[in-house]
Structures are given as structure tokens and as C-alpha cells.
Amino acid sequence: MNIPIIIETALAVVTVIILLSIITSAVFELIGRYTRNRSKLLREAIGQALHDPALNKNYGELLYNHPQLKALHRTSVDKPSYVDPDTFASALTDTIIDQYETENLRCDKETNTYSIPATIEAASAIQKLESAVKEMKFTEVGTLLKSFTASADNINEVKANISGWYENFMDRVTGWYTRDTQKRLVLVGFLVAAALNVDLINITSQIYKDAEIREELVTIGMALEVGDLACDSINTSQCDSLKTDKELVKKINDKYKQLSKTGLSIGWSKADFKTLNAGGIIGNYLRLLFGWLLTAIALSRGAPFWFNVLSSLINLRSSGKVKKKTNSQ
Amino acid sequence: MNKPICNVHIHTFNVQYVPERFVGKITPRLQRHSNSFGLKRVLRLLSRTPWLRKYAAFLKVGLKASQHKIFHDLRENEGYPTGTRFVVLPINFKYMGAGNIDGLSYEQQLLDLTKVTASAKGTLLPFVFTDPRMGSAEENRDFVKMYIEEKGFKGIKLYPALGYYPYDPRLELVYKYAEKNNLPIMTHCSSTGVYYKDPDNIPVDFTNPETFNKQQIDPFTKKPRNYLFPFKPLRFRKKKYLEKYADNFLNPVNYTDVLERFKELKICFAHFGLDNDQYKGKIKLPWHDNIKTLMKKYKNVYTDISYSLHYEKVRNKFAGYMTDDEINNKILYGTDYFMTMQEQKSAKTEGELFQKTQTAFGRNFLKIAQANIDNYLTSEFYEY
User: Fold this and answer.
1) What is the mean pLDDT of chain A?
2) Domain count, chain A
3) Nearest CA to CA, how far is A123 from chain B (Å)?
4) Which of B70, B178, B220, B382 is the most exposed place for a label (fewest CB within 10 A)?
5) Are residues A242 and A254 both part of a single domain?
6) Which of A89, A243, A63 lies closest to A156 in space, CA to CA?
7) Which chain A residues are Cβ-neighbours of B103 within 8 angstroms?
8) Chain A contact for B146 (CB, 8 A cutoff)
């Protein structure tokens, strides 16, 4: 068994998976643009954390009515996919104070005008906030909100506490999103594998047998940089939302062309259908489906995972070469 | 100086305050996921389908960002004269068996409404909605009292179709308080509208209700009054049956228990007891005539022409009532905005409906939109 060829084959196969993962991520992102997965999850997470039926308050929902968050919406129902910690903290403190003031609005029977008591009107923001949370019942959300004010001397410290909590909370939300994304990526990966007719078994066999394709792919793999993976769907960074649909489609095209140029048998041709139909329809189709499924499972791990594998393989290959060189000396 | 006119029946709640199945199972999806396809596209799609068109019209307003936005758009863009007043009727949908309210609670709806009222410079006159299931008789009275006396709410809203009878003993103290203070009550009285929707949870008191003032004789049919309704659990499983069953809650006869105990109670039967099926002659409920009887019998029974007025024939019929001295002082102008957006046959917009009603009533319009409403709204706590 020729170890260097096996390592090079593995390296080439991983390169193919990385390029396909980038395509899958871009397709996933495009779909996400229309299904708004990220904004939905963010809304659900904030809603869950700040909804307190016992208080009859849904600060999550109220927060989305705040002008600072509304400014991030494209339409009244189009919610943001990212809210930075400072905006969140500022909007939450405003919302609590606003609710407190509204609760204390009183109507003058004679003049039919509304006002809040002068003592509340004159109070500072931190005093209003403290009074508001003090009046809250002992509930999970009430306790959480109280914890923000307990150790703070001024409104900025409260906001800093909220920002800190929100950042930690968002780390957890990112974890949920990642898990959720991986499941969805299997499906999208399968669709990509089917659309491009990428059968991992077939491709591995072709790469192993064809030195020219293998070398071409190894060269591409060696040239790949972390920058190529930026904004991968698994890593939910905000930069995704900055990309236009056109840029994403271009990314898909570029990577597909890069793969096609290597001579790898991907994509569909009439010959493929003939081959499929020629020998035992069920057997061929089942094998193809299994190949696509394998591809989909591989793609669901995301490009960053395969990039680490690629780096390890490159190191392994280099150390093998050095060892060989040393032995020959 | 003439007092401003008033529309005595509008709504400003949006989808944030309604339960999951408010307009069917599509509500939460539209509420949460309409952004998936783009709001305009969803509404355009709904508008193309005749039986969904009314939902599209409702959602067009109901999906607006806030009560403030809905109220502001109505006040500024529909051609009402400056200073026109609007009675806003909130509703607590919690007990209608249509699922959870994932957005904002009824208490929040009232709080938000208070805030809009405070900024509306006297043009928004909020009513407080009450439902006997919200608490005991004392709790319900105290709830209403707090909103009337501290928050400047001007009256009380009832909506029995959501699953209760108006003679429920838990409302007795509310009526007592309202009568004592000459407070106006607005109650839904039309076979059309939202209704109790949970076929799997039918409370016993639906079919065997308690009343605080049992009437032996039905004043309309002159026959013994029957409080027991046939209980056929299997039939409750059918949505259509539940919708029809809601008529039992709404029937004007139920109010005879209330009005016989509280003879001075100021109560307005919304929609004049009419609904779409009756305009089309599909069914014939005697409610419209019953309400006229009640208006003649009891000093403070009113009706409004809201929703019903969208039909030209009905509008003209109502205008004809202005020659009847027994009831012409008790007919109020209201439109049921934005529910009327579901009916666009005779008027596409609220402004158009307003204009057409003015034309139909001629010089009597001021009577229904000003003088009658003045009498109806003026209470111990508010002078119109």
C-alpha cells in the first residue's frame, strides 16, 4: 500500500469537501436570507429569557417595539438577526423605565389629561429603574433584572451589567444555533450533493486512481487559507449579513468552477443517466443515494472542521516527506 | 361651540395581543414567520383568495407595529375632521380557547392603550374590557374601577361570544358600579365575529349557567325562559357548531336578567344585532328587533351601527330609523374599524365609509355622531 498516495488522496478529498462546504454554506446562507432562521432564533431566545407571564410582562416582545431595535428592522415584521450588546442594554433599560412610567400614568378627572407623579418625573434614570425592579414580583425575570441593578451605582453600570449578561447569553444562543444549523446542513448538503452529483465514494475512487486530478486538488488544498472560510454558516458571525445575494451566488459559482477545472466527475451529463439506468436501476440508484448521503454528512461538519483536518494532513504529508528526505540523506 | 363628532366603536389591538388561533391556525405563522416571505407578498397572496381576503385586510392593519400606529393612521389619514374622538375597545382574548398569547398580555394591551390615550389629547376614549373569568365579582369590579378612576378609561366593553353569559354573577358588581356612576357599557351583539374556539374544553356553565337574576318569562317570546342549552359534546367538536353556539352567549334576551336588576344601566348593543348572514337573508335571528324592543323599554339602552353600516341597504335602513322618536336618540355612530376592512364591497376605506354614512344620514348624522354619543359617554367621571 502506497502511504503517500493515500495521504494525498485524503488531502485531495478533504479539499473537495472544503470547497463543497463553502458552496453549501453559501446556499444555506441564501436560504437563510428567505427563512430568516437567525433572526427568528434571536427573537425566540430573547423572548424566552425575558418573558414572565407572572409579571404579565413580555420584555422580549416589548424590547422589539423599542425604536432602537425597530431601526434595525427592514419592515415592521422583519426582525434583526443581530443586536449588539450596547443596543440591547440601552433598549432594555429604556423599556423598563418606560413601562414603569406608563404604569404610573394617572388621569386627571377634571382636565382629562395624563401625568406621572412629580416624584417619579424628577427621579434619575437609575432611580426609576431601581423602583421599577423593586416593584417586580419574585420571579425568574424579576430576579434577573434585579441582579443588574443590585451592584450598580449608575445607569451606565447597569447597562454594562446587562451587556455582559447578554454577551454570555448570546454565546449560548450561538451554541443552539450551531447545533440547529448542523442538522439543517445535512439536508442542504444532501441537496448540494444531489444537484452537483457529488458521490463521495465515486470521487474518492477517481482521485485515488487519477494522479493528475489528485495533484491539482492537493495544490488547491495547500493554497486554501482561513480567510476563505470566513462567514461560514456554522460560525454565525455578523459579516454574513453584509454579503449580498449576488456575492453569495458568485461564491458558489467560483468554487464550482474551481472544482470542475480539476477534471473531477461532478455535475450531471446524459452519460451519467445512461450509466445509472444501464446496470441494475435499484442497485445503482441506492449506491448513488448512499454516496450523496455520505457527502451530506461530511458537509454538515462545516468547512472549519475540514480545514483543521486538512491542516493535519498537510503536516502529516510534510513530516513524511522530511522523514523520507532525512532517510535518503 | 359645537362638540366634536365621535366614532364610538373602533379597535386598535394588533397581532401582538391575540392568541395563536385568533383567525385560524395561520395566525401564529403569519405573526412570526411572515417575514420569511415578505409581508407584502403574503398579503398579496391572501388578497387573491376570496375567502382569505378578509384576513388579508385585517392583517394589513393588525400587523402594524403598535396601537399608536393604528390609531394615528386612522385619525390622520381617513378624512375625519380634526378633533374627532374615537372610543377604543380593547379585548382580552385569553379565555377564548384559541391558544396562548405569545406576544403581549391583556394588561399590557391596556397599558399601551393608556400611553396612546395620554398622547392623543382627548381624542382617544378608551374602554376597559372585562370578562367574568378574569376573577371574582369583587376582583372584576375593582379591576374596572381602577381603570375608570385612575387611568381615565371612559366605559366598559363586553364580548360574551368569547365564552360567557352577560348575566354571569361575576359581573354583577361591575354592573352595579357602572349603573351607579352612569358609565357606558358596549357589548358585542352580532352573530359575526370571534367566538370561543376550544372544542376540547367546554366548561359546564356553557350549558347550565348561573345567573344573578333569573327571569321566568322570556320577554320577547313570552314563553318560560330556558337557561339550559342542549349539551351534545360530539357536536362541539365541530368548529361550525361552536360558532353557532356563541349565539347563545350573545342573544339579547340574556340582558333582560341584567336590565331587570339594573334598570338604569347604560348599555349599547353593538352592530344593532345584525350580521352578514342576515343581510344576505341566510338566517333570521330576531336580535335586531329585540334590541329595538329593549331600547324602547329601558331608558339607557343604546345601539351602534358599527360594522353593519358597510352594507348600503342596511345603512339606509338605519337612516330611516331617525324618524322613530322612540329610538332615534339612542342610535350611535361607530364603524368597528379595523374589522370593517374585511368588508370592502361598499367602501374600500374607513374614510369612504365615514363619507357614505354622512350622506345616508344627512343632517341626522350629527345626532348619531355627536348628540347621542354625548348622552351615552357622559358619566360621573367624564363629560363629553
Assistant:
1) 83
2) 2
3) 20
4) B220
5) yes
6) A89
7) 58, 61
8) no
Whether residue B170 contacts residue B257, with contact meaning beta carbons closer than 8 Å, is answered with no
**Based on the domain organization, do A273 and A187 belong to the same domain?**
yes
Q: Which residues of A touch B32 (CB under 8 A)?
A: 40
Same domain, A271 and A230: yes
pLDDT at res. A229 = 60
Residues of chain B short of pLDDT 50, as ranges, are 33-37
Are A114 and A234 within one domain?
no
Q: Which residue intervals of chain A are DSSP H helices?
A: 3-35, 37-50, 59-64, 67-70, 85-103, 118-122, 125-134, 140-150, 155-196, 200-209, 211-223, 239-242, 245-261, 270-278, 281-300, 303-328
Beta-strand relationship, A51-52 and B155-158: unpaired
Of A36, A53, A105, the CB nearest to B35: A36
> How much is the average pLDDT of A67-81?
74
Instruction: Confirm or reject contact between B134 and chain A (CB < 8 A).
Output: no
The whole-number pLDDT of residue A236 equals 44
| A30 and A44 belong to one structural domain | no
Q: Tell me how close the Cα of B301 comes to any Cα of chain A, in angstroms.
A: 25
In this structure, CATH architecture of domain B6-377: Alpha-Beta Barrel (3.20)
CB-CB neighbors (< 8 A) of A116 in chain B: none
ipTM, two decimals, is 0.85
User: Is the CB of B32 less than 8 angstroms away from the CB of A106?
Assistant: no
Quick one: A195 and A270 in the same domain? yes
Q: Is residue A54 predicted with pLDDT exceeding 80? A: no
Same domain, A255 and A306: yes
Q: In terms of residue numbers, what domain contains A287? A: 3-35+180-324
Instruction: Considering only residues A56 and A221, tell me which one the structure prediction assigns the higher pLDDT.
Output: A221
Nearest to A77 among B35, B117, B150 (CB): B35
Task: Give the pLDDT score at B342.
Answer: 77
Please identify which residue in the block is written with the cell numbers 487559507. A225
